[in-house]
Design a protein that fits this description.
This protein has a seven-stranded mixed β-sheet, sandwiched between helices. Strands 10-9-8-11-12-22 form a six-stranded mixed β-sheet, sandwiched between helices. It has 499 residues and is an alpha/beta fold. The protein folds into two domains: 270 residues, Aldehyde Dehydrogenase, Chain A, domain 1, CATH 3.40.605.10; 187 residues, Aldehyde Dehydrogenase, Chain A, domain 2. It is 39% helix and 22% strand. The protein is globular, with a radius of gyration of 25 Å. Helix 2 crosses helix 7 and helix 3 runs antiparallel to helix 7.
């Protein structure tokens, strides 16, 4: 049985705790490896070494740090197939989807190649007699990233890229369910020229998370996961004086207006609702057609598309649309929510339960499910299912549909499909959601913008990647400098303007 350790000071090391977590193969339901769970002593040592390495890394000029990002990006491209296979093997997603996972992370690294432009300060000369004022952006020091299972490459890259480009050292704690991708990325960063100790990958459970949150050397924490954990991490980090950006759950709606192209809307819902088995925080899980005629037309198009979807292991290649969910517990929870939808009066149009795949009978596969006549008081509407389940909530008017989105406690992403520019513009202006798509189902911004939700989907003032990431991972220092070039004045006890 393979045992997976940690990445410390530029090399793989075995764990010393004697505690391990199983790394499953979601397609077979079998344990494929064991990952070491670190002790607090191991974490303390890694943080101390990171703090030492960070001093010289921060003193390295931004252009040289950017060159490491350039080399890293090239190595990610060269190792795309290897990275995608690791993602697929531990997560279960298809190879094309796994490559997309890596690619969207790589795009953030590409933006980090331009880090010097983001790290410039400001200056005002002659702010007063012989006085100049200027600001500089400096690294926080040692920061931490705590990343989820559903994007084993993308989200670690979202965290490590900006943090390192800004001159910080990072303690990365990936999900113990998918540890291998982060370890390979760490090896590639070393090959790209990152000094040893600047990135430490520590595998662990809640004990290590709490150790990160309580450690006085850690200056900032980035997290992606469920809303309850995001709230917990944000609160504990803030109480300990740390910066925190914590991203939680979602319940993403897509409004379909009567004038929308129904075929395009149906195609969009298939990809956004069932891709990666629905294990995306930006998945569309609620279709909101306006008017019964629209709802009926949409259901008519969705059913045959859903019935044609192929579910299977990533090893089946291009013949598979999506794979298993991450654990048996996730599968059981999804099936339980489907049962609750039926009990609470929703119409189960397509039932994905009970799917069995020959040779993979013990895998964590959930077939695609479709509900109609879902109401906002049902559990399948209120909870983030995080599985291949799409719910249709019928509304009578645009205002009712809009208010459904506005009233939801989550605010990660939303979309509208319409041919009317006024409606689209009104929707984008009024909806209280962080990322909005117009005739675009998964509105994840490109890497030179920033990713972030509203309401209970995000905690903290700054978003992930893009300009906000460089603000989050740096602090501003402002210097007021005076040069006595023939200026004569005496001592003053008054607080006065510089001029």
């Amino acid at each position: 049985m393979q045992e997976i350790g940690h990445w410390i000071n530029g090399k793989m090391v075995a764990g010393t705790s004697g505690r391990f977590a199983d790394v499953m193969n979601p397609a077979t339901g079998e344990v494929q490896a064991r990952v070491a769970l670190a002790t607090l002593a191991e974490l303390d040592a890694a943080i101390a070494d990171a703090a030492k390495a960070q001093v010289q890394w921060a003193a390295t000029n931004p252009q040289r740090r950017a060159r490491v990002m350039m080399a890293f990006g090239a190595l990610i491209n060269q190792n795309m197939d290897k990275l995608a296979e690791l993602v697929a093997r531990e997560h279960g997603k298809t190879i094309p989807d796994a490559k997309g996972d890596v690619q969207r992370g790589l795009e953030v690294i590409e933006v980090c190649m331009g880090a010097p432009a983001f790290l410039k300060g400001e200056m005002t000369d002659n702010a007063g007699p012989g006085i100049d004022i200027y600001s500089m952006r400096q690294a926080l020091g040692v920061v931490a990233g705590i990343t989820p299972f559903n994007f084993p490459a993308m989200i670690p890259l979202w965290k490590m890229g900006p943090a390192l480009a800004c001159g910080n050292a990072m303690i990365l704690k990936p999900s113990e369910r998918v540890p291998s991708t982060s370890l390979l990325l760490a090896q590639l960063l070393k090959e790209a020229g990152l000094p040893d100790g600047v990135l430490q990958v520590i595998n662990g459970d809640k004990e290590i998370v709490d150790g990160i949150l309580d450690h006085e050397t850690i200056q900032g924490v980035g997290f992606v996961g469920s809303t309850p954990i995001a709230q917990y991490i944000y609160g504990r980090a803030a109480a300990n004086g740390k910066r925190a950006q914590c991203f939680g759950g979602a319940k993403n709606h897509m409004i379909i207006m009567p004038d929308a192209d129904m075929d395009k809307a149906a195609d969009a819902l298939i990809g956004a609702g069932f891709g990666a088995a629905g294990e995306r925080c930006m998945a569309i899980s609620v279709a909101v057609p306006v008017g019964d005629k629209t709802a009926d037309a949409l259901i008519e198009r969705l059913i045959p598309r859903i019935e044609k979807l192929k579910v299977g292991p990533y090893t089946a290649g291009d013949d598979v649309d999506f794979g298993p969910v991450i654990t048996k517990a996730s599968k059981d929870r999804i099936n339980g929510l489907i049962a609750s939808g039926v009990e609470q009066g929703a119409k189960l149009v397509v039932d994905g339960r009970g799917l069995k795949i020959q040779g993979y009978e013990n895998g964590f596969f959930c077939g695609p499910s479709l509900f109609d006549n879902v109401t906002r008081d049902m559990d399948i509407y209120k909870q983030e299912i995080f599985g291949p389940v799409l719910s249709q909530v019928r509304t009578k008017s645009y205002e009712e549909a809009l208010n459904l989105v506005i009233d939801n406690e989550y605010g990660n992403g939303t979309a509208i499909f319409t041919a009317d520019g006024d409606t689209a513009r009104d929707f984008a202006s009024r909806v209280n959601v962080g990322m909005v798509g117009i005739n675009f189902p998964i509105p994840v911004p490109l890497s030179y913008y920033s990713f972030g939700g509203w309401k209970k989907s995000a905690f903290g003032d700054l978003n992930q990647y893009g300009p906000d990431a460089f603000r989050f991972y740096t602090k501003t220092k402002t210097v007021t400098a005076r040069w006595f070039s023939g200026i004569k004045d005496g001592a003053s006890l008054n607080f006065k303007a510089l001029d």
